[in-house]
């Protein structure tokens, strides 16, 4: 329930590449997006590279899954299936390459101006709170409030601009092959103070032996923290949050589980719907944070989902286990 396939509003064009047998189209959209009348024979031997080459598309240098042809832009990805097959998806981007680059520069300017002002406010508040200047209790509480809200606004601004870049297929993702445990441990430590303030126990469950993953550690850590934030907003004192992971076939699944009151099915199904939740809740902070987590996971070729039962609710993400031929990419390779 609540799983996503691609972070784009357009319906994806799909083709199933099984381990045995010919490729199988799942609807007509893929051929329509590519401008082809039939699947090329090179798809069997050359995979998605052969598919895009046959359609005349070239990979954009600054985006792993972004392909362009004569002003037409597509985002392409694949999901590893438990039986060893692959589900390839393609969605159109309503922006030309030049327009995307122009929009990204615009977002960078806006981010610099907004974050620069907030950073100055934060720096001066922190300077006055360093203990060198005597402060009356009321002034100190006021400065602490300024500092706290500046940190919150900086985090929100970062999420907003990252999500906007992700919608353009321009989210920076620095992948490196690494173990998952340090990433989850860092996320739990970052959230421990917030959990303690809410009187909620936050536990990193013992992990089984897991394969290394090829990820941007900061992006995956942010996604796990976003899931924990979402639960903490709704948790009651005395409840527990558990972070756990397990291997499922060609994927690793990471869960953030809240043991407590169940969530209504209609709420759990809308967890990753940013605009709908923002309008309904009249707040953007949590919907945006969780939506960005979805975009970050999907940038790695993974999925997100949400489940509820009588004992509580779970937000989860899946990450593909790198295949042998993929492990040779340099650490700074961008998706």
TrEMBL record:
PANTHER family: HYBRID SIGNAL TRANSDUCTION HISTIDINE KINASE C, TWO-COMPONENT HISTIDINE KINASE. It comes from Corallococcus sicarius. Its EC number is 2.7.13.3. Gene3D superfamilies: 1.10.287.130, Histidine kinase-like ATPase, C-terminal domain. This is histidine kinase. Keywords: Kinase, Phosphoprotein, Transferase. It comes from the Bacteria. Residues 109-323 form the Histidine kinase domain. One of its GO terms (molecular function) is phosphorelay sensor kinase activity. It catalyses: ATP + protein L-histidine = ADP + protein N-phospho-L-histidine. Coiled coil: none annotated.
